[in-house]
Description:
By secondary structure, the protein is mainly alpha-helical. 75% of the residues lie in helices and 1% in strands.
Amino acid sequence: MKKKSDKAWYALFVLPLVFIFTTVVIIPFIIGIGYSFFSWDGMPLNEKIFVGFDNFIRLVSDKRFLISAGHTTLFTIFAIITINVLGLGFALLVTGKLRVRNVARTMLFMPYLIGGLILGFIWKFIFSDVFSNLGDQIGLKNVFFNWLLNPKFSLVALIIVATWQMAGYIMIIYITGIQAIPEDVIEAASVDGAGFWQTFLRIKFPLIMPSFTICLFLTLSNCFKIYDVNFSLTGGGPSNATEMFAMNIYNEIFSLNNYGYGQAKAIVFFIVVAVVTLIQVSITKKKEVAM
């Protein structure tokens, strides 16, 4: 009887979530796959023309989509490095002997609590108005100017904002991994004369590989899917120099009214993200050390 009642309680809590997930995610995803085989402008009264795999074949010659794929790849590589290096650095800092470590944790985590759209508008003001005025005041106009008007610097600006937003969140995950390391292991390394870097590279980092797997997965997927900061900070400009995957898909569907073609892009985007993240998880999982 107890087992049956337990199963009933499990079902009571799980079934509503399964229903919501199916309704909001699974069904729209399946419908989206169906739309990707049609030429349609998204208007309910207009005719849907079946084109088969033409939308997917068309992607190969879509220069704007391929360029946005290049931007996304470049942005993702550099953002993953900066976010994880800073996040891990912050974690090591606040788990050390820092007196104000609790205050530091709070301050470093706070940027993640700011919405992406608001965050983008805040940094847009900094990169445009503050940098321009600062360059005029101190005479370093080659460094302090409106970065968002320069195709190369605008991508760097996007990486900086994404790093500033996510590093604190990634820090929390690394803190959890570091605090899970047994104290006697660290003490034994100290007794044996291991320095900071030896302890970190040979003991701490191998033991926090599960945290590294999670952090790499989160940063990889989030950087590939970035849209809100991209929209509010650069809008894809200048001259589409910072248009990412998600923004290209959004513009295709809602600006150009190519609903079927946009859905085909979205399906390809989903496959790319899924394959890359699965490969990443499988590789980093093999590096994990059991404690």
